[in-house]
Amino acid sequence: MPIDYFANTLTIQHGTENDFSLSEKQLAIWLCDGSNADLQALNLKQILHPDEHCILAQRKKQQAQQEYCISRMIIKRVLVSTFGANATEFASRFDAEQGQLQLWHHDQLLPVSVSLSHSNGFVAVAMSLGNHAFGLDLERTNKPRAFLKLAKHFYHPDEVALIEQSAANEQQAACFYRIWTLKEALAKTLKKPIAQLLRPNVFELIQSNQLHSQSTQINQFDLSLICASPLEFKHIQASTLNEKSLSIN
C-alpha cells in the first residue's frame, strides 16, 4: 500500500567519532550539516586526492564546495578506517557510463558501493562493502513551492491524488517530497535518469523491481533509501555529524 511508504521507518542514531568503519553485510549512513563549514579551516590537502582538488575547483558556488568537501571527508574517514592508508591515496570518481560513483585506491577499484545526496548544505552518504544496488536521496522540505502544480506536471495521477488528499499545505509538502526522494533514490538504484522515472508510479516501480525502501524526516529534510537486498536494512547505522568530527589525522 502507498501509505506504507510514508511511514518514518529509517532510524537515525547519534553515532560517535569511531563509527566510520564498514563491516560485511552492513549498509551505513552518515549525515552531516555542512552549511557552516569553513573550507579555509579544513586541511583539504591531507584529505582530497589531486583529482578531487580539480573537481572542487570547478565548483563555483560556496554551498556546492561545502557539500562536495563534506561528502568526500565522510567517504575518506570511512575508507581510512576500513582499509588503512592515507586519505589522499583514495579517489572518488564518477563513472558516467556506469552511472555511479566509484572509489579507488591508486589504480585499484575498491569493493565499496556508495550513494550520496545533498540539499541546502546538508549531506547524506550511504556506503557498504561489496557490489550492492542502492540509492539515497535527501531533500529539504520547507521550500515554498506550488506542490500541486508541480505534481500535476511531473507526477503520476495516483501520486497527485495522494497529495490532494492532504488538506494542510505542510502535509502536501511532506507528501510531495517523500514521493520525490523515493523517485530520486529509485533512479540511483536502477542507474537511470530521474527524467525517466518522474511520470511512472514510484510505488508500483519499487514493487515490480522487488526493491525495499525506508524513509525518515530529520531537521526539515526528507531522506529515502532504496535497496535491492532486504538484508542490508537490518544493518543500518546512521550518524549525525559536523565538520569538526570529520577531521582526519
From TrEMBL:
<dbReference type="GO" id="GO:0000287">
    <property type="term" value="F:magnesium ion binding"/>
</dbReference>
<dbReference type="GO" id="GO:0008897">
    <property type="term" value="F:holo-[acyl-carrier-protein] synthase activity"/>
</dbReference>
<dbReference type="Pfam" id="PF01648">
    <property type="entry name" value="ACPS"/>
</dbReference>
<keyword id="KW-0808">Transferase</keyword>
<dbReference type="GO" id="GO:0019878">
    <property type="term" value="P:lysine biosynthetic process via aminoadipic acid"/>
</dbReference>
<protein>
    <recommendedName>
        <fullName>4'-phosphopantetheinyl transferase domain-containing protein</fullName>
    </recommendedName>
</protein>
<dbReference type="InterPro" id="IPR050559">
    <property type="entry name" value="P-Pant_transferase_sf"/>
</dbReference>
<comment type="similarity">
    <text>Belongs to the P-Pant transferase superfamily. Gsp/Sfp/HetI/AcpT family.</text>
</comment>
<dbReference type="GO" id="GO:0005829">
    <property type="term" value="C:cytosol"/>
</dbReference>
<dbReference type="InterPro" id="IPR008278">
    <property type="entry name" value="4-PPantetheinyl_Trfase_dom"/>
</dbReference>
<dbReference type="InterPro" id="IPR037143">
    <property type="entry name" value="4-PPantetheinyl_Trfase_dom_sf"/>
</dbReference>
<feature type="domain" description="4'-phosphopantetheinyl transferase">
    <location>
        <begin position="134"/>
        <end position="221"/>
    </location>
</feature>
